[in-house]
Here is the input.
Amino acid sequence: MGQVLKSKHTQLFIAIGAAEVIKVTRVRSVGFPDGQASEIDISDFDDDWDQFVAGRKATGSTSIEVIYDSVDSEALEELHRTGAVVNFLVTAPASETAGADKPAAVNGVITPPTAVVSKQFNGFVQNFAVTVADNDVWKATMTIRGSGAVETHRPTP
Amino acid sequence: MMVPLIQQLLQGDEAVRSLFGDPVRVFPSTAPQDTALPYATWDVVGGSPTNLLSERPPADGWRVRLTVWGKSTSKANAAAVAVRDAVETVGSIESYNPPPDDDDTGAFGISFDARLLQLR
Here is the structure.
């Protein structure tokens, strides 16, 4: 059996340039674009029951909730402004007390760490909605429209 | 800080000091025997930090129950208004509560809950 992954010290990185990676700070929750497969009906007149095979998978969206930061949120708002498709990487914790080290990027693609589980996908910031509620901190929900598959990288044995 | 900022908030408020003395007669949980009126007590009744995935929380939220005691309805009300106004400069009032039991002291009590958010 493998390990159960705790959410504490899960981190989100975004490649905002060919070789520039930022760690998204003050993350409250993170998700991944889902991939609902379409269905292809292969039934014929002789079948008593419908028959299907899986078709193309529709890349979905996901939401990431952060506490708005007067400085760090600027990069995320800039991604929303430009609509650029960028590479995202979510890393599992490196230990009980620490997250994974900040990875590097090559040609805008983040190099996943080999020591922890990570999930990687491309997408663009479809929405960046800031909410201000009574007696609370400013929060923002970033909607990421996925493009392509979510890849899972497992630690090197 | 693991104690909400209510004590220092009320101590720092001039209107509260004018009614509750200096240092203010504001106490966690219970007041000492024979404390002069008006006075106030407070208890933490809820709250949580603003938790994050990979960093320490940047803020703590508290729900604090305040009970203000006065010799009469009007004196308790004036004292409670001063406390309320001080709280509302940095937080908000979450609820007004049923009058507390005076334990046959004859004092009049006003109870309300405040929400306070403290950045770390």
